[in-house]
Design goal:
Pathway: Purine metabolism; IMP biosynthesis via de novo pathway; N(2)-formyl-N(1)-(5-phospho-D-ribosyl)glycinamide from N(1)-(5-phospho-D-ribosyl)glycinamide (10-formyl THF route): step 1/1. By secondary structure, this protein is of the alpha/beta class. It contains 8 helices and 9 strands. The strands form 2 sheets. The chain has a 7-stranded mixed sheet, with helices on both faces. The structure holds glycinamide ribonucleotide (GAR).
Length: 256
């Protein structure tokens, strides 16, 4: 963020985009003082793209499926992709055999290179993953996180991390019989949903609640928590520090 100008955020969605809507609404009513510069998706049919269109926000699609197909057809890898470097940093595919790991990282580098190129014109300060259902590899993360003290990718996850990382946080919480569920906003690091936690919100899972009820309660918390965490970032109040070997987020008091 430079001078007094508003922070530019980019938002990535894969689905319906109710979190995107909550962020757009917070901006519209003045609770969040940022500029939503663009909304992108890996999924051409994502409902979030229509929400952005309606609000006059530029959109783009990075079609992961098509780009994975190009990799299978032997299209050249991005010139700045180094398999050894990315493989050494990632912790998404621990213990997998070298061929599977190579395929996993090369395919994603094809897609992530296109994603990075799509974001360039918008000069974003922060990238917000609002229901973006793709993991990001160190190839992408390092391109954005040029300052180790100021991570630039934020994700919302539908569980109280570090419990239940992965693609079905509310489902996993419910099936485990948890009496409390929740959501977590965190910075993205090289693992799956493992980065420094910025904020969490919880709700009770009551007798008689089914999975739909759990999701409904969870989303209501997400819509409140996510704009709040973005606001803290925009106010420069998130400080990443090392605590006993783990990177954690300190929330700084409001500035006068
Ligand atoms: C949200 O519940 C979000 O936490 C989750 O996807 C949903 C998106 O809903 N994200 C993940 O599971 C990321 N791994 P939305 O499209 O209505 O915002």
């Amino acid at each position: 963020m430079k001078g007094n100008s508003k922070m530019n955020i980019g938002v990535l969605v894969s689905g319906g985009g109710s979190n995107l809507q909550a962020i757009m609404d917070a901006v519209a009513v003045g609770d969040l003082d940022v500029n939503i510069a663009c909304v992108g998706s890996d999924n051409p049919d994502a409902g979030g793209l229509q929400r952005a269109d309606k609000a006059g926000i530029p959109t783009f699609v990075t079609d992961y499926g098509a780009l994975f197909g190009r990799w299978r057809d032997g299209a050249p890898l991005p010139e700045d992709f180094c398999l050894e470097t990315v493989a050494a940093r990632q912790s998404l595919m621990k213990g997998s055999d070298p061929d599977s790991l190579r395929a996993f990282l090369e395919k994603r580098a094809m897609a992530e290179s296109a994603l990075l190129a799509a974001l360039v014109p918008y000069k974003i300060d922060l990238l917000v993953l609002a229901g973006f259902m793709r993991v990001l590899t160190p190839y992408f993360i390092d391109a954005l996180n040029t300052d180790p003290n100021r991570p630039r990718i934020m994700n919302i996850h539908p569980a109280l991390l570090p419990a239940f990382p992965g693609t079905d946080g509310y489902g996993d919480t419910f099936r485990y019989g948890c009496k409390v569920g929740g959501c977590t906003v965190h910075f993205v690091d090289y693992g799956e949903d493992s980065g420094p936690i910025i904020g969490q919100s919880s709700f009770s899972i009551d007798p008689g609640d089914d999975l739909d009820a759990v999701k409904k309660k969870g989303l209501a918390e997400e819509w409140r928590l996510f704009p709040e965490c973005i606001r803290l970032y925009a106010e420069d109040r998130l400080n990443v520090v090392e605590r006993e070997g783990t990177r954690v987020v300190e929330i700084l008091p409001e500035k006068d």
